[in-house]
Design goal:
This protein is an all-alpha fold and 185 residues long. The protein has one domain. It has 5 helices and no strands. The radius of gyration is 20 Å and the shape is elongated. The model has no long low-confidence stretch (mean pLDDT 91).
Length: 185
């Protein structure tokens, strides 16, 4: 039986895994996201995408859904359950890999658990997509409270995603400092 103070050590991913995650993330940023964005703008139009806003009301979400029209709402749902299943996996893999790889430089056990932050961002992203899908499918039935819940999950997604990137940057700078200090010993 493990002691309460023990935290199971998570093995750092290989550099090959980190490199593969980085390549996939870079391809999404450079190729996939611009193409999907252009396709979405050309085929849906409307007042923009709710998953790009930080905070908005349920009424704002319904205004966006109304601006899409029936065909645009249908396409929006299809994109959420094709492209937007893969994109959160890509950014989570990138962030989890880098966080775990960099955390290996640190002795504090809690640092090795920071990889859960990008996992939370991915889960908030999927929850947001699920709630938006419901709104798009039941439109024009007004479920403004659900629309506001979408906004809150979007805020949670963007907040945890931002923190996850900051964690990677801070861990990276710290790992560089640790390496420099160890080199002087």
């Amino acid at each position: 039986m493990r002691k309460k103070s023990e935290v199971k050590s998570v093995k750092a991913p290989s550099l090959t895994n980190v490199a593969a995650a980085t390549i996939v993330f870079a391809l999404f940023i450079a190729v996939v996201l611009p193409r999907v964005s252009a396709y979405t703008s050309a085929n849906i139009g409307g007042l923009g995408s709710p998953d790009m806003d930080f905070l908005y009301s349920g009424r704002r979400l319904y205004a966006i859904a109304d601006s899409y029209g029936a065909g645009g709402r249908r396409l929006y749902v299809i994109l959420r359950w094709t492209f937007d299943l893969l994109w959160p996996m890509a950014y989570a893999w990138f962030l989890v890999s880098w966080t775990r790889w960099l955390a290996a430089w640190y002795k504090k056990p809690w640092v090795k658990q920071l990889y859960w932050i990008p996992v939370a961002a991915m889960l908030f992203d999927y929850l947001e997509n699920t709630l938006v899908t419901i709104v798009m499918l039941v439109f024009p039935k007004p479920l403004y409270a659900l629309g506001t819940m979408v906004s809150v999950t979007g805020l949670a997604k963007w907040s945890t995603l931002s923190v996850a990137f900051v964690v990677v940057l801070v861990l990276g700078m710290g790992a560089i400092m640790i390496r420099l200090l160890r080199g002087k010993e």
